[in-house]
Specification:
Number of helices: 18
Helix content: 25-40%
Radius of gyration: 25 Å
Structural class: alpha/beta
Shape: globular
CATH architecture of the largest domain: 3-Layer(aba) Sandwich
CATH class of the largest domain: Alpha Beta
CATH superfamily of the largest domain: ANL, N-terminal domain
Largest sheet: 11 strands, mixed
């Protein structure tokens, strides 16, 4: 059984002592994911594992399962998948956050391997993931008034005829020929033992998580049982989870944050998860009633991505008693200091940051939840792992170690690092001799704490001057009218890029662009980082897990710039501009001229040649 410590990790010295007292193997003897649930069921048999809220209404009667019931359901699901798919079957799922989603994930890993799929992806992308991952079984949500998951699942059956479809639906739904009902099928399986022998474990593949969906073709990242166990154990240690903790679960279960630090780590220690509706904090009713639910269910740990935390902080706590909240956690994106300060003001507690990556089985480092908290830092590496900051050479490759405070690329090593992508070609330049190149830029302070300085591809380079977009975003979110800010580079013929900032304003606020520029110039010490343009838009685009979706904003900034160039500076008022992400330079710009402007093609080509993106000019239509 996992051996934790009687003393919470608060400082670097605590972490070092923890590592020297016992080895990782002594602390983490579990070989499989199922071992975690066997141990938790033995230690906390009647303790609530999951409280499932469907609507968040004050009078809702939640569905609850304890740790013994959860173990039974996982073994039943594993037996079902084995009986349907044979030895070590691949099981994909398209499900919102439900008890059945947790059961499917861990049951699939026990019998074979899981492939969590973002059900908001387009059908073609989902089909490619299904084919690339080699799965035999798809578990999908049945017909739903707001979600089109079932329609996508039926479409996949047409494209992949051998795919076995298992439907998760409420009781008493009409059966469909050729479709297996999840609940009734599991009810026919034994739940007290596995019918296929030993569970998968060790270096066996436990899951393939898709990633890269915001910047290009999704890649499938391999997780082993060992890598997930080491990551989850490190998360449990650094978060200092206790068996009397009650934690809000708001992250989707196709994302590693929802499955590891807010999932497996919690289950290792007997935590109760409150699943705040199938949609989590994407559900407006949950956002509006968040503090009431925290009070009602006596939550001790609250968390979410920064954009979601920011949303609930706009809702007054009112008369709700949230005194049991002992800490907060956030990750998946950098935390604007203004949001952290507001969290402290509202709850009296620190909002601790987590650095995670799919390629490191979910986690890299954590600002310990039991510590006092450090503003802007993602804390220390997980126990028994290593994080180095290396300089980038002239070719953009990692080289020598950085000094304290010097920005470089973050490199990660440990048993939690993935063995690589399912397609080995994707691993080149990312996984090398046991090291993972995160692609994140960062630095360490004198205490060894890690700070993120942005993604290397997010850095705005103005005349050779590297500008961290977080500097701009953090400053703009301190303006009382700004809800969310996203800084990107706008193409510039002279400087290469100029910083621009998109802002989403709070409802019922009225502020001028001049006032926002004045605020930026008073708040940003680095003059080159002053935004050239500040653009107010209705809503900052977000990914399905709440991260700001910058590729579309970069395209919007480029389109604004090139449209102004072509229509105003060159006088071609009927010309159109199309911008898409991709290509060897990260962006493709197409200028479409009407037939009567054909003679201006050369002039436009000469003007576009000064920019860094790929460009073409055509006459007619796209």
């Amino acid at each position: 059984m996992t051996v934790f410590s009687n003393k919470a990790i608060c400082t670097q010295e605590d972490l070092k002592l923890f590592e020297t007292e016992l080895t990782l193997d002594q602390r983490l003897p579990e070989r499989s994911i199922l071992d975690v649930f066997i141990a938790s069921a033995a230690k906390h048999p009647t303790s609530t594992a999951i409280t499932m809220l469907m609507t968040g209404a004050e009078d809702e009667l939640p569905r609850r399962i304890n740790y013994s019931q959860m173990l039974d359901m996982i073994q039943g699901a594993a037996n079902l998948f084995s009986s349907l798919g044979g030895p070590a079957p691949g099981v994909a799922y398209m499900l919102p956050s439900l008890i059945e989603t947790y059961v499917t994930l861990w049951g699939a890993e026990t019998a074979g391997y899981a492939v969590p799929i973002n059900f908001l992806l387009k059908p073609d992308s989902i089909a490619e993931l299904i084919k690339a991952s080699g799965v035999k079984i798809l578990v999908a949500l049945g017909p739903h008034p707001q979600l089109d998951i079932w329609e996508k699942a039926l479409g996949l059956r047409e494209l992949i005829p051998d795919l076995i479809i298992v439907r998760v639906s409420p009781p008493n739904i009409q059966p469909v020929e050729g479709i297996i009902d999840f609940a009734s099928a599991i009810a026919k399986q034994p739940t007290d033992h596995l019918i296929f022998g030993e569970p998968r474990g060790g270096d066996d593949i436990a899951a393939y998580f898709h990633t890269g969906g915001t910047t290009g073709v999704p890649k499938l990242v391999a997780h082993t049982h060992r890598s997930q166990l080491v990551s989850a154990f490190g998360g449990a240690v650094m978060c200092g989870y206790r068996s009397d903790d009650v934690m809000t679960a708001t992250l989707p279960l196709f994302h590693v944050a929802g499955t590891i630090v807010a999932g497996l780590s919690a289950f290792m220690t007997g935590v109760e998860l409150i699943v705040m509706s199938p949609g989590g904090l994407r559900n407006p009713a949950i956002v509006e009633g968040f503090w009431g639910l925290v009070a009602q269910h006596k939550a001790t740990i609250v968390g979410g991505v920064p954009t979601a935390i920011n949303a609930v902080l706009q809702v007054p706590v009112g008369n709700n008693d949230i005194s049991r909240v002992r800490t907060g956690l956030t990750g998946a994106a950098l935390l604007p200091p203004a949001v952290g300060a507001r969290f402290k003001e509202v709850t009296g507690q620190h909002l601790h940051e987590i650095l995670g990556m799919t390629e490191s089985s979910g986690l890299v480092s954590i600002d310990p939840l039991s510590g006092s908290g450090s503003v802007g830092s993602v804390g220390w590496p997980l126990p028994y792992t290593q994080v180095n900051i290396l300089r980038l050479n002239s070719e953009g490759s990692p080289s020598t170690p950085c000094e304290t405070g010097e920005i470089g690329v973050i490199m990660i090593k440990g048993e939690h690092v993935s063995p690589g992508y399912r397609d080995p070609a994707h691993s080149i330049g990312v996984f090398d001799n046991g090291w993972l190149n995160s692609g994140d830029l960062g630095y360490k302070d004198t205490q060894g704490r890690i700070y993120i300085a942005g993604r290397s591809k997010d850095i705005i380079i103005r005349s050779g001057h590297n500008i961290d977009p977080a500097i701009i975003e953090n400053a703009m979110t301190t303006h009382p009218a700004v809800k969310l800010a996203a800084a990107v580079g706008m193409p510039d013929a002279y400087a290469g890029e100029l910083p621009v900032c998109f802002v989403e304003l709070l409802p019922d606020t009225d502020v001028s662009v001049e006032d926002l520029h004045h605020h930026a110039q008073n708040s940003i010490d680095e003059r080159p980082a002053w935004p050239k343009h500040i653009l107010s838009i209705g809503a900052i685009p977000l990914t399905t897990v709440g991260k700001i979706y910058k590729p579309s904003l970069r395209c919007d900034a480029a389109k604004t710039k090139i449209t102004d160039l072509v229509q105003n500076e060159l006088g071609l008022i009927d010309a159109c501009v199309d911008v898409v992400a991709g290509g060897s330079r990260g962006m493709r710009v197409t200028v479409i001229l009407p037939e009567d402007n054909r003679s201006s093609t050369g002039e436009v080509e000469d003007a576009l040649a000064a920019f860094l993106f790929e460009a073409r000019v055509q006459v007619g239509t796209i």
